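Structure first, sequence second, as always.
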C-alpha cells in the first residue's frame, strides 16, 4: 500500500511540475504568438492597375492570385478591391512596409523570350514557382527555382525548348532581365528547374519575382501604411478574462459532478492550456480575435473526451466492478468513441486546410491543434492523474460516482414530432431568406467581409488612441450608417484613421463628413472615400464551399468504413446538415451579420455536431454486438441514446458555459461569433434519431 501511495504521489508531483513548466513556457512565449490585423495591426498596401480600364474578371483573378501569394506571410492576410482599379493588401503581424514591398515585389509584367526577342509565354501561364536546395553528386549545395506551367504554358514551353536546345531563354520582368537559363533539353512535362543560382536568397528572390509576375494585371504601388490594431487592448484583455472565468466555472462543474475524476480532468485541462499556447507559437498560427475565441471554445470542447471516460467509469461501478477495474475498463471502452470522433473531425480539419484559404485555413489550424491535444490529454494525462489519485488512497467508489442503468427512453418514438419541428424551423429559415431577398436583395445580412462597403479615410487634429476611436468615433459613424458593422484602423505614426462601413450613397457620405467635422473639427478636405470589395472574395467563398463538401464526403467515407454500415454515415451527415440549417435559419430570421466569423462559426458547428454524433453511434455499435434475439434495432438505438444522454447534456453544458461567458463579456465581434454558436450547441445536443 505504501508503495502504491508513493507511486501515486510521484505521478501527481510529476504532473503538477509539468503543468507549472509548460504553463510558464506558454505564458512566457505568449508575446511570440502571431496576431492578426485586428489584434496587433500590420501593413496595408494599396496597388493600382496599370491598365486603364481593367475588367471585373481581370481584377477578380488578380485578387485571388495575390491572396495566394500573401498567405505566405499569414493565413489571415486579406486582399480586396477598392474602387474600380485598386487592390488593397492587409498583412497582419508585420511592421515594415518597405520590407514587405521589397520581398513581395512590384506586381509587373513577366515574359519568357527567346534569343530573337520573341515572347514565348507570359507570366500568367506560370502555375507556380518555388525556390529549393539540393545536394549535387559532389556533395555541394545547389540552389534552384522549380517552375510549373499551366496546360497552355506547358505546350508553349515544350515547343520553345525543343527549338532552343543549347540557347538561353530570357525571363524578363517589368522590362528588366532577371534570369537567362540555358536550355539543356526539350521540356515536355510542364515542369522545369532553373539551376546555377549563386545562393538561396537569390533563388528566393527569383521565385518571388516569377510568382508576382504571374498575376493577370500589372500593378503599381499607390500607397503603403503601417496600421494599428482594429481593436484595443481592452478587447483582448476582456476576452482573456472571459476565458479564465469560463475555465474556472467549467473546472468547478467538473469537480462537483465527477468528483475525483473531475479533479483529474481539471489537471489535464491546465496542461492542455499551456501546451496549446506553446504549439501556437511553434506552428506560427496567426490569431485573430475570433481565433482567440475559438481557442477558448476548444477548452470547453476538450472536456468532452473526459466526460465520455468518466461516464464509462460510473457505468462500470454501477454493475459492481471495483474502482481499479472500472477505471481500466472505462478508458478501454471510451477509446473507440474518442478516436473515431476526433479522427473524423481531424479529417475535416485536414481537408479544410488543404482546400480552403484565408480564414478557413486559420480555423483548420487551430481546430487540428485542439483535436490532437484533447486526445493526448484525455487518453494519457487524465489517465495518469486519475491513477495517481487512486493510488494515493482515493479508492472508495463514492469518490467516483455510480451510474445505474436508467429506464430506456423511447427517443425514436418521438422522431416524427422531432422531424416535424425541425422541418418547420428549416422551412421558416428558407422563408426568411426569401423575404430578405425580396426586401434587401440578399438572402442573408452580409457584412463588410462578404459584401464590401465604403472606406473613409479621415485625418483628425490629434493622435487618437484605439480606445478613443472605439468609444467616440465609432458611435458617431454608426449614428449615420444605422449599422453596427463598422471597422476601424489607425495608420501608425499619423493622425489618419480608416473607417470601413456598409456601402454609403452620396447623401450618406456627405452626412458622415458633416458629422465628423461637427463632432471632431476635422478638415473636410482631408476626408476621402472609396468603395471597397468584400475581403472574402468569390473564389475564397468557392474554396470554402468546396472544402466543406469534400471534407463531408471524406467524413462520410471514414464513418462508413469504421461502422461498416452506410446508414451510420448518411445519418451522421444528415444530422450535421440539420444543425447547420437550423443555425442558418437564425441568421436569416434575426438578420445576424454574416462576416468573417460566419465561416469559422459554421465550421465549428460542423465539427461539434459530427463529434457528438459519433459518440452515440459508437454506443449503438457496441450494443448491436451484444444484442439479444428479443431486442429490436429500435430498442438498441433507444437504449444507446439513453446511456449517452447525460454525457451529451454535460458536454454541451460545459461548452455552452465557455461560449456564454464570452458572449456576456466579449466585444461585438466576439458576440457575433458566440451567439450563433450557442444556438448550434443547443441544436447539436438533440440526439440524431435520423
Amino acid at each position: 500500500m505504501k508503495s502504491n501511495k508513493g507511486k501515486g504521489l510521484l505521478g501527481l508531483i510529476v504532473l503538477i511540475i509539468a503543468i507549472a513548466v509548460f504553463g510558464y513556457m506558454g505564458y512566457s512565449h505568449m508575446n511570440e504568438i502571431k496576431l492578426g490585423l485586428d489584434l496587433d495591426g500590420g501593413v496595408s498596401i494599396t496597388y493600382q492597375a496599370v491598365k486603364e480600364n481593367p475588367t471585373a474578371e481581370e481584377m477578380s483573378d488578380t485578387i485571388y492570385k495575390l491572396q495566394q501569394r500573401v498567405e505566405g506571410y499569414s493565413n489571415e492576410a486579406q486582399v480586396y478591391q477598392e474602387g474600380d482599379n485598386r487592390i488593397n493588401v492587409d498583412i497582419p503581424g508585420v511592421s515594415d512596409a518597405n520590407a514587405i514591398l521589397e520581398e513581395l515585389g512590384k506586381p509587373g509584367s513577366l515574359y519568357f523570350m527567346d534569343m530573337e526577342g520573341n515572347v514565348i509565354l507570359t507570366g500568367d501561364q506560370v502555375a507556380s514557382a518555388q525556390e529549393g536546395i539540393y545536394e549535387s553528386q559532389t556533395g555541394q549545395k545547389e540552389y534552384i527555382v522549380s517552375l510549373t506551367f499551366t496546360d497552355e504554358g506547358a505546350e508553349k514551353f515544350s515547343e520553345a525548348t525543343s527549338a532552343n536546345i543549347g540557347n538561353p531563354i530570357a525571363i524578363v520582368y517589368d522590362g528588366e532581365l532577371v534570369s537567362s537559363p540555358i536550355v539543356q533539353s526539350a521540356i515536355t512535362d510542364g515542369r522545369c528547374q532553373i539551376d546555377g543560382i549563386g545562393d538561396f536568397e537569390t533563388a528566393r528572390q527569383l521565385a518571388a519575382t516569377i510568382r508576382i509576375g504571374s498575376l493577370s494585371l500589372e500593378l503599381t504601388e499607390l500607397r503603403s501604411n503601417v496600421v494599428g490594431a482594429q481593436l484595443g487592448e481592452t478587447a483582448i484583455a476582456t476576452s482573456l478574462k472571459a476565458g479564465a472565468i469560463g475555465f474556472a466555472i467549467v473546472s468547478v462543474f467538473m469537480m462537483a459532478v465527477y468528483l475525483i475524476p473531475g479533479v483529474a480532468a481539471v489537471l489535464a485541462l491546465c496542461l492542455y492550456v499551456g501546451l496549446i499556447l506553446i504549439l501556437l507559437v511553434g506552428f506560427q498560427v496567426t490569431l485573430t480575435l475570433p481565433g482567440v475565441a475559438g481557442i477558448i471554445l476548444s477548452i470547453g470542447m476538450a472536456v468532452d473526451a473526459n466526460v465520455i471516460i468518466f461516464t464509462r467509469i460510473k457505468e462500470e461501478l454501477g454493475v459492481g466492478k471495483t474502482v481499479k477495474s472500472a477505471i481500466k475498463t472505462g478508458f478501454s471502452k471510451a477509446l473507440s468513441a474518442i478516436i473515431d470522433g476526433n479522427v473524423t473531425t481531424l479529417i475535416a480539419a485536414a481537408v479544410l486546410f488543404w482546400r480552403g484559404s484565408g480564414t478557413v485555413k486559420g480555423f483548420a489550424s487551430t481546430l487540428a491543434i485542439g483535436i490532437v491535444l484533447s486526445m493526448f490529454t484525455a487518453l494519457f494525462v487524465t489517465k495518469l492523474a486519475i491513477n495517481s489519485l487512486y493510488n494515493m488512497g482515493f479508492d472508495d467508489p463514492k469518490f467516483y460516482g455510480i451510474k445505474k442503468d436508467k429506464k430506456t427512453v423511447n427517443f425514436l418514438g418521438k422522431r416524427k414530432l422531432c422531424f416535424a419541428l425541425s422541418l418547420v424551423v428549416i422551412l421558416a429559415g428558407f422563408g426568411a431568406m426569401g423575404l430578405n431577398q425580396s426586401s434587401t436583395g440578399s438572402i442573408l445580412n452580409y457584412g463588410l467581409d462578404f459584401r464590401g462597403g465604403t472606406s473613409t479615410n479621415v485625418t483628425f487634429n490629434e493622435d487618437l488612441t484605439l480606445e478613443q476611436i472605439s468609444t467616440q468615433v465609432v458611435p458617431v459613424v454608426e449614428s449615420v450608417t444605422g449599422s453596427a458593422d463598422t471597422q476601424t484602423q489607425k495608420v501608425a505614426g499619423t493622425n489618419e484613421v480608416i473607417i470601413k462601413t456598409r456601402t454609403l450613397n452620396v447623401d450618406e457620405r456627405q452626412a458622415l463628413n458633416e458629422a465628423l467635422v461637427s463632432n471632431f473639427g476635422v478638415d473636410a478636405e482631408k476626408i476621402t472615400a472609396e468603395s471597397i470589395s468584400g475581403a472574402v472574395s468569390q473564389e475564397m467563398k468557392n474554396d470554402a464551399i468546396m472544402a466543406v463538401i469534400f471534407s463531408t464526403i471524406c467524413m462520410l467515407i471514414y464513418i462508413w468504413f469504421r461502422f461498416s454500415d452506410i446508414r451510420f454515415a448518411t445519418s451522421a451527415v444528415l444530422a450535421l446538415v440539420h444543425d447547420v440549417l437550423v443555425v442558418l435559419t437564425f441568421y436569416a430570421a434575426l438578420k445576424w451579420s454574416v462576416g468573417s466569423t460566419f465561416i469559422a462559426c459554421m465550421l465549428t458547428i460542423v465539427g461539434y455536431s459530427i463529434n457528438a454524433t459519433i459518440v452515440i453511434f459508437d454506443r449503438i455499435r457496441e450494443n448491436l454486438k451484444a444484442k439479444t434475439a428479443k431486442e429490436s434495432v429500435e430498442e438498441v438505438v433507444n437504449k444507446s441514446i439513453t446511456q449517452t444522454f447525460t454525457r451529451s447534456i454535460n458536454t454541451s453544458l460545459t461548452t455552452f458555459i465557455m461560449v456564454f461567458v464570452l458572449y456576456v463579456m466579449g466585444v461585438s465581434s466576439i458576440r457575433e461569433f458566440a451567439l450563433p454558436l450557442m444556438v448550434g450547441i443547443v441544436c447539436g445536443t438533440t440526439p440524431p434519431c435520423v
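Margin note: The radius of gyration is 29 Å.
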